[in-house]
């Protein structure tokens, strides 16, 4: 009897621990809506109000309210003007210098030269003239913005007189090591460009 009881007990234990296939989970349990997150919630801007984000819009109260400072581009002060002015001036001068270098390279090489030699001459001229003109114009634009912002802060307004004066001073400072005549020529050129920009800005913006 003890031997039979022990054997029957083991059989009952094995029967109670047997695997029931009807209780197994199928694939729908893993692919349910609860298991898979909503793809729209994974977006970086999910749950944010895009109308109130600071980097998408500038409040009118944060803009520069100095008379004559408003233009087509919103500006919060001299730092924004420095970024806009120096950046656009550098890119424009870099492009103009590239065109100048390409024309110079094509004119210096004979027409009968092999294509590789003409291409090499053009690339050398472009890389020499483009960065030179872009860097020079970028430096002048940075100095011009600093002087123009300072004059505007002192006078309490931005007008054509500020731009022309700042252009003349920045051009003269740029060529201050070359002598009086180059200083006057450079100052006149930059003042003319600044005056033209000020008149066009007032007329169209």
UniProtKB/TrEMBL annotation:
GO cellular component: TIM23 mitochondrial import inner membrane translocase complex
Predominant localisation class: membrane
Listed Pfam families: Tim17 (PF02466)
InterPro entries documented for this protein: Tim23-like (IPR045238)
Annotated membrane topology: Multi-pass membrane protein
Location in or out of the cell: Membrane
Positions of region (Disordered): 1-20
Keywords: Membrane, Transmembrane, Transmembrane helix
GO MF terms held by the record: protein transmembrane transporter activity
PANTHER family named among the record's database cross-references: SD19278P (PTHR15371:SF0), TIM23 (PTHR15371)
Protein name: Mitochondrial import inner membrane translocase subunit tim23
Species of provenance: Penicillium capsulatum
Top-level taxonomy: Eukaryota, Fungi, Dikarya, Ascomycota, Pezizomycotina
């Amino acid at each position: 009897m003890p031997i039979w009881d022990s054997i029957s007990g083991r059989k009952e234990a094995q029967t109670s621990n047997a695997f029931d296939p009807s209780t197994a989970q199928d694939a729908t349990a893993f692919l349910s809506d609860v298991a898979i997150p909503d793809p729209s919630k994974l977006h970086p801007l999910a749950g944010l109000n895009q109308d109130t984000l600071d980097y998408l819009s500038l409040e009118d109260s944060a803009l520069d309210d100095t008379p004559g400072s408003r233009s087509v581009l919103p500006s919060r002060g001299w730092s924004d003007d420095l970024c806009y002015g120096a950046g656009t001036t550098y890119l424009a001068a870099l492009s103009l210098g590239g065109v100048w270098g390409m024309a110079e390279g094509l004119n210096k090489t004979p027409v009968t030269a092999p294509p590789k030699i003409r291409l090499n001459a053009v690339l050398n001229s472009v890389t020499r003239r483009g960065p030179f003109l872009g860097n020079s114009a970028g430096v002048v634009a940075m100095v011009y913005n600093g002087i123009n912002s300072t004059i505007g802060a002192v006078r309490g307004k931005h007008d054509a007189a500020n731009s022309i004066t700042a252009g003349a001073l920045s051009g003269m400072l740029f060529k201050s090591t070359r002598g009086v005549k180059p200083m006057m020529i450079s100052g006149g050129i930059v003042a003319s460009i600044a005056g033209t920009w000020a008149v066009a800005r007032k007329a169209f913006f």
